[in-house]
Structures are given as structure tokens and as C-alpha cells.
Amino acid sequence: MSRRPVLLASLTALTLACASTQILGSWKDPSATEVRFEKVVVFALAKDPTTRRVAEDRIVEGSPAGRVVASHTFVADADLGDVDAVKAKVVDAGFDGALVLRPRGTETRETIVPGAPLPPFGSPYGNLWGYYGYGWPGAHAPDTVRTDRYVEVETLLYSVADQKLVWGARSETMNPASVNDLVDAVARAARDDLRRQGLLP
Question: Which residue has the higher pLDDT, 104 or 142?
Fold first, then answer.
């Protein structure tokens, strides 16, 4: 069996993200070294069952079979609120790592996009028709307003055995086109930060 970190295999498979994501802040356990989990469970903490399934399946896609597992495949939606029941299922299934994604909220922001700037005064401003012939083709374009949607997501990596947080990040994605697009972008940003922190090769 390959010793390639299973989490790296999962996150590297998602390389086609179109949305723009930036890490707002991240933290790692100072004692943590390169992650070598053998079996990782993925939780997408979304109230909507469809969103949960799509997000978890997207992370699992392209991973080694049976080594990165979507929680919805063995934890029913009705059981999500029962912490003890979920814990027992995860421990009984032999997971040593847990990747948890939780959307924190969505925000809409407006940005003023400047129109064409006015040229400096001078020639040909001194002559009416000279200016008219110059000015009409380059009539000033007004400012416009661009509206963007930002989605903030927490991504957390835990060790199941000791229940400790190994790494966590908060990210912001601009204008995701779909849940898949959002997850792809967040996963790619998470992978890059995990590498920067020395947790992935």
C-alpha cells in the first residue's frame, strides 16, 4: 500500500477550482509533524442534507478507496445531533483522522468600478470644434457597481485518537458557482496552507 498521505491524495485531486479563495487565518498544533493518517472521515456540517452529501462526496472524489470516507455514508442525517452516537460510529469504523468543513456565512459586497477618467485640460480644449471632434469619441464612461458574494468556511483537521485539533483555517471564497466549485476552491487553499505549515509534503 502506498505511504502517500491519504489527505494529500484527496486534496490534490481537486485542482480545477474556478472560484477565488483566500485563507483569512490558520493555526496548527506546534507539536504536529507531517500528517500520516491512514483513514480519514469527512464531515460537512451543513443543515441541508443535499449540500452535506455533495460537499463530502467532492472531497472524497479521487481519493484512495476506503481511506477517505464521507460521513453521510454511515451517519444518518437524523443522528448528526447525537455527539455520542457519531463518536461511537467514527471510533468503531477505525478512523484516525477527521476533516471537518463548516460554512460560517455568506456576505454580499458592492465595489465601485471607476469609469473612464477625464483627460487633463489643455489642447484641444481651447477650440470648440477641435474639442468636439476629440471629445465625442472618448465620452466619459460613468462608474459602475459590481456585486460579489463571499462565502466563509472553517476547515478543521483532527486526530481521532486524542480528539486534538491538528490544524484549522478560516477561508473566504468569492463568487462560487456551485457547492462543488466552493469545495474545490476551499480544498485547494487548505492543501496549500497545510503544505506551508509543513503538515503535507
Answer: 104
Residue 39 confidence class, pLDDT cut points 50, 70, 90: very high
Q: Give 56: exposed, middle or buried? Use CB within 10 Å, 0-12, 13-18, 19+.
A: buried
**Residue tagged 504536529 (cell numbers):** 32
- Residue 181 sits in which domain range? 6-106+150-196
Rounded CA separation 69/56 (Å): 8
Please name the residues in contact with 66: beta carbons below 8 A apart, sequence gap of 6 or more.
39
What is this structure's pTM? 0.79
Pair (59, 138) in one structural domain: no
Give just the sign of the alpha carbon dihedral 93, 94, 98, 99: negative
d(CA 38, CA 6) in angstroms, rounded, equals: 6
Neighbours of 45 (CB within 10 A): 14
